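Structure (tokenized):
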């Protein structure tokens, strides 16, 4: 989906209200996600670099409540 989209061309969004605190995102992509003191997801950057796009997609896939979305931005 996002391969070759270019740096800054993908927008990463998280729904902290939907987050169930599983921590899967921060395990799969620790450069992109962390967990706050309450255990909920913390997004480190909304625009993942190309070398982290696959990790971002995996984190979205592993999220049990689909609280992570990737959007390819128009040119």
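Design, position by position:
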């Amino acid at each position: 989906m996002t391969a070759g989209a270019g740096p800054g061309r993908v927008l990463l969004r998280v729904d902290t209200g939907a987050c169930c605190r599983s921590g899967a995102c921060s395990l799969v992509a620790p450069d992109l996600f962390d967990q706050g003191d309450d255990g909920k997801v913390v997004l480190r950057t909304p625009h993942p670099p190309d070398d982290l796009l696959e990790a971002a997609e995996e984190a979205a896939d592993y999220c049990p409540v689909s609280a992570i979305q990737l959007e390819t931005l128009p040119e």
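Reviewer-requested clarification: The radius of gyration is 12 Å. The longest strand covers residues 10-14.
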